[in-house]
Every structure is written in C-alpha cells, then in structure tokens.
Amino acid sequence: MFQDKLAQIKKQLQQLEEGTLPEYLRRLKRLEQQHKERLRLNDVWKTCCKENAQRTCEMEKRQSKKDFEQKKVELKERLICDWEDKKKQVENDKVHIELSMDFNDFKPISTRKLRRRLNPDGHTISSNGGPQEKRRKQSPTINILLDDMSINEDLKLINKVSGKSFVSRKQPQPMVTDTDDHTVSCDARIEDGKLYFEKRWYLRGQAIYADSKETGKFGATIFSIGSAEICIKKSSDNTKVKILLSQLQKGKYTIRRRST
Length: 260
Description:
260 residues; SH3 type barrels; 4 helices; rod-shaped
C-alpha cells in the first residue's frame, strides 16, 4: 500500500513537470481569467480617467474664454470712461484758455506822457511850446452809497417814466433744502483711486447700495473711480450710472457697503 501511494505521488510530480496535471491546469485557467479581468478593468479605468480629463479641459477652456470676453468688455468700457473724462478735461482747459486769451485782448492803451521842460525864467513849457499854466488841484472824489430803499425809489421813478414794470431788489435768501433748514454736507473725497465716504473706503468692484431721491435705493457695483466722479453698474440691468463727487458731498446720493 505504501508503494502504491509513493508511485502515485511520483506520477503526479511527473505530470506537474510536464504541465499535464489536472489540478495545475484548473488553477492555471483560473489565474488566466483573473489576469484578463484585471486587464479589462485597467482599460476601463484608463478610459474613464481620459474622458474625465478631457471634460475638465473643455470646461476650463470655455470658462477661460468666457472670462476673457468679460474682461475685454470691461477693459473697453473702462477705457471709454477714462477717455471721456480726459476729453471733458481737455474741453474745460480749452474753454479756460479761450477765456484767458479774450481777457488778455482787452489791455489798456498806454499813452505817452511828455516830459515838462523849464524856461530860464522858471516857467514850465507845455508840449505846444507855450508856457503852461498851473493846474488846479482836483477836489477829492466823494462816493455816496445809497441804501436799498433809495435805490428802489429811484428804480420806480425810472420805470414809471420808461413804462416798464418795476422789480425791486431783494436780499439773497439762504439756500434751504426740502427736508430741513440747512444744507447736507457729507465727507467724501477720492484719493489714489479709492473713494472715501462717511468714514469708509470703497474700491473698484465693490458691491454697494446706492440711494437718491430720484432713483431710490438699488444694488450696484463700483465699476470705475475717476478724479471727480465714480461710475457704478446696477445689479438689476447692468446699466451704468455716473455719480459726481459733489453729489456725494451735498447728500444727493448716498452709498453704503453691501454683502455679496
């Protein structure tokens, strides 16, 4: 019996070396199937990763193109606003230069005064050769200022003779606002491309609330900050509104920060 088992084991070793052992062939076939399945899963994973990377790349390209177009439009609009401000500044400088040139055209005509010569007898000789008489001393000029009542009476008399209606002179009345008896003064200024309003600094691209009597309260974003005004873009319809620095100082417009 021992010899039979030993002979059987030797036979199995011989089949294993030859590659014909049934148990070896069955397990080898199972390993081959597992190897093929793993290769198939690796190909599927590779394809999924490739498609995901391609979708991500396409999405980033579209987003980059969209950002480029938006930045291009904003740059164009900002340059247009800057050039309009420069154009207005040049026009104002031109008007000032023309006014100064017109003022310089009206110069007083200088008259040449002849020097007086003395005769040997001590008399002064005039420009026509004869002795010049002594000039009379001019009496001092007296300026009489009339009050408003006397001026109004004189105007009534003049208008009565000329047949025109009389308009009396009135003292200038102080400016009174609709809400109270004094003008509203707000602390507003622009420094280094930043707006300072009511103890707060505002930058370009910041979300704000703007409020005025004409338009009411609305949400907006600061589009640009010039030297004497700011340009904001409404959140509702993307329309641009220009607010002068003087309007902020006089309280016609008020702004405050808005959380995005």
